Amino acid sequence: MSPFEAIAEPNRRRLLELLRSGERAAGDLVEATGLSQPGASKHLKQLREAGLVSVRAEGQKRLYRLEAGELAALDSWLQQFRQYWMHRLDALNDHLEKEQ
Known about the structure:
three-stranded antiparallel sheet, alpha+beta, 5 helices, single chain
C-alpha cells in the first residue's frame, strides 16, 4: 500500500494524529480511537506496510511510532499544492481588502 492510499482512510489518519505526540501502545490506540482491536490492528498493519509507522515489542506490548521518511515524502509532494493555495488565499485577501 502506498502512503497516499494509507492516509486516504479516516481511521488511519486518526491513528497517525495520535502518534504525533510520540510512541504509543496498541491498546492505547484502540482505546483512543474506539476501534475494535482487530480493526485497529488491520489499520496499523497497513500504516506499517506504507512505511508511515514502525512497531517494536516491549514484553507483551506493541509500541507504534511515526516514521519521518514517508511523511517527508508526502509533505514534499504536497508542497506544490501549498503554493497554489497560498496564491488563492492571497487573492482572496486582496479581494476582501478592496471590498472594505
